[in-house]
Write a structure and sequence with these properties.
Layout: E1 12-17, E2 26-38, E3 41-57, E4 68-76, E5 82-87, E6 91-98, E7 103-109, H1 113-120, H2 135-139, H3 141-144, E8 149-156, E9 160-165, E10 171-176, E11 182-189, E12 192-198
Antiparallel strand pairs: 1-2, 2-3, 3-4, 4-5, 5-6, 6-7, 7-8, 8-9, 9-10, 10-11, 11-12
């Protein structure tokens, strides 16, 4: 990373504690990031964790210790947004983005990149370039991918989230005041507005 002049991305994070009764620093846990090249960008490729049954003294040789891979980032779009990743080697997730890569419009758990690609009939990262998302196509993934858990979102750019739809198809709405501040969260049940929260803002 240093050779590529990338100095604002962490490669190794160590959680440690130093007690007054001890001369050394005791390591509690650690996280290591590996990086790779995606779409001509250097981005995170995987996250590995160092978990210990008990704290150990800090040593720079920890960098070469047996870290266990927890997350693997498989695909990004041209904006550097994560599209596909795997957690604990089993839990697969795909994210769809839109509004010119500014906001996520879908989280799909339990499906692979190729399955989502087949359901969309296009590469998922193509959606990132759209200024207005095709929510009819995106919401159809609940039917096309019956074994996956699909949550979807819409936004008003520069303001915030307008709707969030859970895997069961229940829509939560978000209203904003004239200053763009969140004012109300509600559901619609049988054409009746059910308020979840009113946000009172004092001037």
């Amino acid at each position: 990373l240093i050779q590529l002049n990338i100095i604002n991305e962490p490669a190794l994070l160590i959680k440690s504690i130093r007690k007054n009764s001890s001369k050394g620093t005791q390591v509690l846990s650690g996280i290591k990031y590996n990086y790779g090249k995606f779409n001509n960008q250097i981005l995170k490729k995987s996250l590995s964790e160092l978990t210990l049954k008990e704290s150990i003294s800090f040593d720079y040789s920890l960098i070469n210790s047996n870290f266990k891979k927890k997350e693997e980032y498989l695909k990004y779009d041209n904006y550097g947004n994560i599209i596909s990743f795997v957690k604990n080697s089993l839990e697969k997730s795909v994210y769809l983005w839109s509004y010119n890569g500014q906001y996520p419009v879908a989280e799909i758990k339990g499906a692979t990149y190729d399955q989502v690609k087949a359901a969309l009939c296009m590469d998922p990262e193509v959606l990132s370039k759209e200024s207005i998302p095709n929510m009819k196509l995106i919401n159809s993934l609940r039917i096309k991918l019956p074994n996956a858990s699909v949550s979807t979102y819409t936004f008003q750019p520069l303001v915030g989230m307008l709707t969030s739809t859970n895997p069961q198809g229940i829509i939560t709405y978000y209203n904003y005041d004239s200053s763009g501040r969140l004012a109300q969260v509600y559901l619609m049940e049988n054409n009746i507005k059910k308020i979840i929260d009113n946000i009172y803002i004092t001037q």
